[in-house]
Amino acid sequence: MDWGIENRLSRLIREDGRCQFLPIDHGYFQGPTTCLENPSKTIDGLLPYADGLFVTRGVLRSSVPSHCQTPIILRVSGGTSIIGGDLSNEGLTTSIDEILRLNAASVGMSIFVGSDYEHQTLTNLARLVDECERYGIPVMAVTAVGKELEKRTARYLALSCRIAAELGARIVKTYYCDEDFDTVVAGCPVPVVIAGGPKCETELEVFEFVYDGIQKGAIGVNLGRNVWQNPHPVPMMRALNAVIHNNATPPEAFELFEELSKGQ
After folding, report:
1. What is the largest CA-CA distance in the chain?
2. What is the mean pLDDT of the chain?
3. Which CATH number does the domain housing residue 61 bear?
4. What distance in Å separates the CA atoms of residue 114 and residue 144, rounded to the nearest whole number?
5. Is residue 56 part of a domain?
6. Which of 48, 8, 14 is nearest to 246 (CA)?
7. Number of helices (H), then strands (E), in the chain
8. For range 146-163, the mean pLDDT
């Protein structure tokens, strides 16, 4: 592996081979999402517990302090909105010059396998990999499903993840599924991180799916709403780190969460 890519990946993935990424890029198609109206306020206190921050260039410039030492994963795809006709009609929105200028450790973009714009998003990924590999920047592919959440089956996710890896993604972000998630990870030759999806009903539910996903081969998570929409986001991140980096069980993580929440 090229030294530059290896070095950047080592900043995002700890020595234990695990990671917790914090995404705050939702506004690129959802606008001012609940609890993300003021991004700088949302991330206040959370950055020390994140192994990477997934963010757009606009919010990075306006809301993330320049002395931030948390590695940046730059969202570089977009062009649609939640009220538009089709969320999958995305294009690349950020140039390689901008990626370098912003000192990103990695970049991330969505692919929409099975959509009307499948070819477009997959060839966008291939072109992005070509550009970024030239400068030693790893690409994270996000297996997005738009509004069609019923697509989150093991068969679909395994297909999407494998295609992303085949096209050169160094990391794949995908959804967790209750059945056969291990087959999704096993069929992907690059590291897999778990996406959050809709907000869960309880903290324990989050710890359970993260724990199970880690046991089945994922290296970590990329959870947004299940962290910063929680009334106690810092305890939530710390408890998740206990699961991811310290192998805490869901009950142990929930106990830690409750203990930390009492002090707030």
Report:
1. 50
2. 95
3. 3.20.20.70
4. 10
5. yes
6. 14
7. 12, 10
8. 83
- Which residue of the set 41, 147, 173, 199 is catalytic? 173
What is the rounded (10 degree) CA torsion for 252, 258, 259, 264?
150
Torsion of CA 212, 174, 129, 53, to 10 degrees: -80
Task: From 83, 91, 158, 78, select the one nearest 122 (Cα to Cα).
Answer: 91
Over residues 25-53, the pLDDT tens digits come to 999 999 999 999 999 999 999 999 999 99
User: Residue 249 to residues 20, 149, 198, 201, 260: CA-CA distances in angstroms?
Assistant: 16, 28, 22, 19, 16
Helices (H), 118-173: 118-134, 154-166
Q: Which domain holds residue 88?
A: 3-229
109: pLDDT strictly greater than 90? yes
Number of structural domains in the chain: 1
Residue 262 known to be catalytic? no
Task: Note whether 56 and 75 are within 8 A (CB).
Answer: yes
C-alpha–C-alpha distance, residues 92 and 163, integer Å: 18
Q: What is the pLDDT of residue 155?
A: 94
Nearby residues of 56 by Cβ (< 8 Å), 6 or more positions away: 25, 27, 28, 74, 75, 78
Q: In angstroms, rounded to a whole number, what is the distance separating the alpha carbons of residues 217 and 211?
A: 10
